[in-house]
Amino acid sequence: MRPMTEVDLPRAAALSALIGWNQLPRDWSLFLREGAVRAIDDGQDALAATAAFIRYGGDLAWISMVLVRPDQRRRGHAKTLMRWAVDSLNGMGCAALDATPAGREVYRQLGFRDLWGFARWSLPEPLPAAPGVRPLAEDDWPAVLALDAAAFGAPRAALLRDFAARLPQAAVMATDGSGFALARDGARGPQIGPVVAPDDATARALIAAARNALPGAAVIDLTDARHGLAGWLARHGGSAQRPFTRMALGADTPGEPMRFAAVAGPEFG
User: What's this model's pTM, rounded to 2 decimal places?
Assistant: First the structure.
């Protein structure tokens, strides 16, 4: 196990693409800048496994990118990398992650506990547009960061600004200032999120505006608590792909997750 560097970014992106995940080198670079990444080599100039975490403020860290190449599984790589992450974050108020059904049982053995769930959805094109949404402007950023911090419970300005710069046409704000939606590009297609909205009507308008600004296939990670949004997407041709469980070690994740219609994604929280 060794620290990953910028030189490894193409190999890291190749690993996540091989496993069917959506990350680009730019996503991996965020972990290098805002957190840490460890890699295990296969001895043949490729990566066998990885894990990463990103810090948000002084009391919350997000563990993710625990990837093991299929031919390298059952060798203890994931356990070794998770121990590194957990040990590195000892003393943090909360270490959190988003688990697939298979990973959930592994993480429970390490002391992580369930908090709440969300599901990835494919998005139809287009979605019915609604009023009350406008493009995100530079002077909206104080409001965006405040809305996200209230929902997420920790500052993550670098992450949100990176998303907005990647797909600015899909960065939208509720005209009354009550919510926003961002999106980012991906290896398999764009992903919308986070989406913060006080009610489902506002969330629908934001999601539709962001979706309709993007061509081709797109996905979103809807929180289970917003079941009305899931029904809306299903009625318009969307389909659920897979579930995730938000888990924590130490304190519960801060913030007010009910404010989220969609999360940023399992790698970023």
Answer: 0.96
Task: Please name which of 209, 212, 203 lies closest in space to residue 230, comparing C-alpha atoms.
Answer: 203
Same domain, 125 and 51: no
Max Cα-Cα span within the chain: 56
Residues 178 and 48 in one domain: no
Contact 261, 226 (CB under 8 A): yes
Nearest Cα neighbor of 51 from 90, 15, 101, 100 is 15
Confidence class of residue 129 from pLDDT cuts 50, 70 and 90? Answer: very high
Average pLDDT on 11-31 reads 96
Structural tokens at position 93: 């108020």
Same domain, 166 and 229: yes
How far is residue 252's CA from residue 26's CA, in Å, rounded to a whole number? 29
Task: Indicate the number of domains in the chain.
Answer: 2
Q: Name the burial class of residue 50, with classes exposed (0-12), middle (13-18) and buried (19+) by CB atoms within 10 angstroms of its CB.
A: buried
Per-residue pLDDT of 173-197, as tens digits, reads 999 999 999 999 999 999 999 999 9
